[in-house]
Specification:
alpha+beta, four-stranded antiparallel sheet, 19% strand, binds zinc ion
């Protein structure tokens, strides 16, 4: 499921494949035909991400804005000598195709795909909270919003105006990692707790970018950090196309989708409840802090 790490990984792939050269842009599915015509043949300047929003800058101050939503996928891969790639079974679902003589990028099932002005880019970014994957992010800005709110912390972490990029998996897992009660109102959360959560996201989310999968369990996080430090993670990162999730690590979590199973730490039953439109998973015994 795309969270902020997915968008940031996409930036690296798009820049490697397309930045600095003209791109043929089309909409095989047809739904984005007008937008594609505005970009077709223009040089792509570069791309950036803020939370789950992707911004791709083309010449003439035209920007492509994409949000993958819950099921969107944007794959970027090399194609063979023939510049028109073979239609694949999912051809009819390709909202946007970017193509040059070496690479093809196919966007499927996004919730947002549009051509926007630089002013609109600023407007969207101004609405978003700090993104732990951006070096310019200010965690205090998020905490000021949290500290004023009566809404539960589990809901606030999913609010992109408070914090950008965190989705349901990171939300559940990071609250558990710090033993935070998900139902505590934001205004009861201690500044030290927020500092620890933010610091953890800053450490965990780049691993999501590097491996194309969300890693939160301590043993996996330690292994991943070691591979990043010794340089061996780079080969994994370079091999990803975005078409599917990375598989360097076994897919397991402390709580995510483990309803009814025993907590790995205390053995108590993992519970679930709908919060901010998505299933929150938590351990009522471990998670008492605020
Ligand atoms: Zn527990």
């Amino acid at each position: 499921m795309p969270e902020g790490h997915t968008t940031h990984a996409l930036v690296a792939r798009l820049d490697r494949a397309f930045a600095g050269s003209p791109v043929a842009v089309s909409s095989p599915q047809g739904k984005f035909a007008d937008g594609a015509a505005l970009l077709d043949g223009l040089t792509m300047v570069g791309s950036s991400a803020w939370g789950k929003h992707l911004f791709v800058q083309f010449e003439r101050e035209r920007w492509l804005n994409v949000h993958l939503g819950l099921i969107g996928k944007f794959s970027v891969m090399r194609h063979h000598a023939d510049p028109s790639p073979d239609p694949d079974p999912g051809e009819g679902q390709v909202r946007l195709r970017m193509l040059n003589d070496a690479w093809v990028g196919d966007l499927r099932a996004p919730t947002v795909c549009g051509v926007i002005t630089p002013e609109k880019v600023d407007e969207i970014q101004a609405r978003l909270g700090p993104d732990p994957l951006r070096p310019d992010a200010d965690p205090d800005l998020a905490f000021r919003r949290i500290a004023l709110s009566t809404r539960p912390i589990a809901e606030l972490l999913m609010d992109q105006a408070v914090l950008a990029g965190v989705g349901n998996v990171y939300r559940c897992e990071v609250l558990f990692r710090h033993r935070v009660d998900p139902f505590r109102p934001g205004r009861e959360i201690r500044p030290g707790t927020w500092k620890a959560i933010w610091g953890d996201l800053v450490r965990l989310m780049p691993l999501g970018v590097a491996y194309g999968q969300i890693l939160t369990m301590d043993d996996q996080v330690d292994d991943a950090l070691a591979e990043v430090a010794d340089g061996s993670a780079a080969a994994h990162t370079a091999s990803f196309t975005g078409a599917r999730l990375g598989e360097r690590f076994e897919r397991r979590f402390y709580l995510y989708k483990r309803t009814g199973e025993p907590c790995h730490v205390c053995g108590s039953t993992v519970r679930t409840q709908l919060i901010a439109g998505r299933n929150l998973f938590w351990c009522g015994r471990c998670q008492r802090r605020r």
